[in-house]
Specification:
about 550 residues, mainly alpha, two-stranded antiparallel ribbon, 4 strands, about 70% helix, about 5% strand
Amino acid sequence: MDTQFFVSLLVILASFAIYIGIAIYNKARATSEFYVAGRGVPAVFNGMAIGADWMSAASFIGMAGTIMLLGYDGLAYIMGWTGGYLLLTFLLAPQLRKYGRYTVPEFIGDRYDSHLARFIAAICTIIISFTYSIGQLSGSGVVIGRLFEIDAKLGTMIGVILIAFYAAFGGMKGITWTQVAQYLILISAYLIPVIFMSLQLTGNPIPWISYGEIVGKMGELDRELGISEYFAPFTNDTKWQFIALMLTLMAGTAGLPHVIVRFYTVSSMKAARWSGAWALLFIGLLYLSAPAYAAFSRFILMTNVAGSKITELPEWTQPWIDTGRLQLADENGDGILQWNELIISNDIVVMATPEIANLGVFVIGLVAAGAMAAALSTAGGLMIAISSSFAHDIYYRVWKPEATEKTRLNVARWSIAIATLLAGLIALNPPGAITQIVAWAFALATGTFFPALVLGVWWKRSNSKGVIAGLLVGLIFTFSYIFAAKYGGFTILGITDTGAGIFGAVAAFLTNIIVSLTTEEPSKKIQEEVMDLRYSEQMVFKDGEVWMVNGNKKT
């Protein structure tokens, strides 16, 4: 057992002990605690929990690697995910909080007064969250597999057991406070290496300022090697793919059920807005660092690894070669590793960079713990979304409304265990890279919930037939495009599977609007409830007029 392995293991086990301890201390004892943490989470801590929920394995492990490999084109991920949070914070979150339900399917079911709409929304939630969780469990397998130098598949199953335990035990209450701890660990694990690299390469500890200098040097190296320049736009995909991916991620962010439900855990609309503002700050710390991380990693690989003798490569290369995510080949037989003879998976760039940059055993261990925190925090939130959709929206609201509180909690906990196991089995042979799988989940959310929620909150004429047709058409369109593009090579304007949500969203919006306008209007009660969402909690819309909650008419 070498020092690096021992330190990494110690840091990760210590973080696991913290998560399990928090889950046990905050065990959910009532359904309101299991689904919405009792609605008493302070805004700043909810912002941290949202940040951890949001910054998944795709963000922590995959985003810097994706930017490193795609260059300018990879910025679509940052622009889409960040812009989506603004959309959610200002367009939907406060209104959904005012409606005061436990889940997104419950909002849709009650807003449209339709059990069928609730059921379809619950199925959509399960499909989206399940797809997303496959990427997270695959990410946990990469981290655990590398740490213990075991097969990533075994690492995935270890992650399954851990997530199933603390998510089923603590519910949303335990998950919330676990995610706060996970945010602090993952953001430290992300910032410390990038600051150290900035100091090593430029002498400036502020990476957000210094990485421009490195990008300039890389441009010179790219020109010397005769390859596409790192910052040249649209060299990997078309501009239409860039736009479609960015819009899909943006709208998908505003439609992800496991993120939206976090806004139900606070006490008021004002707290929901502040939660969004805090989350944007906490998430921005990582997203603004990712381009610097990518630039530093690529520069170190180009200058310290490429050009080395094949027989004298650093020790860190062999363990990653063993995982199959790093490939080296001396194609011209000169005994020297050329830049174009090195193939590195975008899923290992963040994990491998501390070793590549020789940042020390503690930083390497901290990054491993941060990657685990990112994968586990999002997976936990996803499992709660799946559980609440099945146990609350389908089992309790549709199937067994007479079920006792104890039975509902048991069903919720078992649904988490089963969903985690099934997602883990698929993650053993993931159908794509982590970032790609996550992008599919966003595409499905864009094609289903985004149109349903926007029209449900801001258009009182949208009715149950419209939302049911819109959800189904959006789901089918998005699924069909993903499969056709991924496995059949079919594209429109060069837009690939990761941008599929844009087509699903257009189809769902049009279907919802056309069907709603050609069928009967919603009841007066429902239309007034929709109008009421536009006003603060101190005001009520009733009988065509706005009233203060104390009974006085607003002047």
